[in-house]
Design brief:
A hairpin with a 2-residue loop joins strand 8 and strand 9. The longest helix has 15 residues, at 134-148. With 149 residues, this protein is mainly beta. 10% of the residues lie in helices and 40% in strands. Pfam families: Motile_Sperm.
């Protein structure tokens, strides 16, 4: 929603028998807040982090967004804590294995939320969902009738 922060949760799972450190990066750090953005997962455990998108003044055209997140993870020694994490742990220069996972941002309008849309030069509130056309209503009626028989 415009002029409102939006949040979602992402769950990371460590299926291994080792301690794993993670770090979350984004292509738009001023637009998103990630908490926690670093951490250590014990073996066979999981953690949730929250991504909060700052309030936006306008929608991008067609809700298309090129923002991405990169989740990096690497095996760390037993007993490593969040305070022990450094950016050098995620450097591939040392020849260590860093696993990268990229996530693309997908924007959606919340259901039943008004979206401002210009119509003939005048801003008019319109529903965020598409209104069905008469053709769609006829098809939907036929589908329902076919299922009842």
């Amino acid at each position: 929603e415009l002029k409102k922060q939006s949040s979602c949760s992402v769950r990371l799972v460590n299926n291994s028998d080792q301690y794993v450190a993670f770090k979350v990066k984004t292509t738009s750090p001023k637009k998103y807040c990630v908490r926690p953005n670093i951490g250590v997962l014990k073996p066979k455990s999981d953690i949730e982090f929250t991504v909060t998108m700052q309030a936006q003044r306008s929608h991008p055209p067609d809700l298309m967004c090129k923002d991405k997140f990169l989740i990096q993870s690497t095996v760390v020694p037993v007993g490593t804590t969040d305070d022990d994490i450094t950016s050098s742990m995620f450097s591939k220069d040392d020849g260590k294995y860093i696993e990268d996972r990229k996530l693309k941002v997908v924007l959606t309008s919340p259901p039943h939320s008004p979206v401002l849309s210009p119509m003939n030069g005048i801003s008019k509130q319109m529903p965020a969902y598409d209104e069905p056309t008469l053709k769609d209503q006829v098809l939907n009626s036929n589908e329902i009738a076919a299922k009842e028989h």
